[in-house]
Design goal:
By secondary structure, the chain is α+β, with helices and mostly antiparallel strands. The chain has one domain. Helix content is 20%, strand content 27%. A four-stranded antiparallel sheet has the order 1-2-3-4, sandwiched between helices. Strand 2 and strand 3 form a beta hairpin. The two termini are 22 Å apart.
């Protein structure tokens, strides 16, 4: 069963560095969200931070700066929903 769970910074950082193909870790973030698969293994992570665009830094807007899933299927919507992301992401 797939479940959402919080993830520690050190585990999320290692997951991003191990699996993300062209971006490294972020310099800052507000919170981290994890997605656990069968047996509790981490299969996805989302890093949420302040918007890069200064005009959007109003204290209410957040931006998903890293989103990675180890298995490419419908789980992306779980992480997107958990982070409160309302923008359209490419599928």
């Amino acid at each position: 069963m797939i479940t959402l769970r919080p993830v520690q910074r050190i585990k999320a950082r290692q997951f991003v560095l191990d699996h993300h193909r062209h971006h490294g870790w972020v310099s800052g973030f507000l919170w981290l969200q994890g997605l656990a698969g069968e047996g509790g293994a981490l299969i996805g992570t989302a890093v949420v931070g302040r918007p890069v665009a200064r005009a959007l830094q109003d204290g209410l807007t957040t931006e998903v700066t890293r989103l990675f899933l180890h298995h490419q299927s419908g789980e992306r919507s779980w992480l997107r929903t958990a982070t409160g992301c309302r923008s359209q992401m490419p599928r």
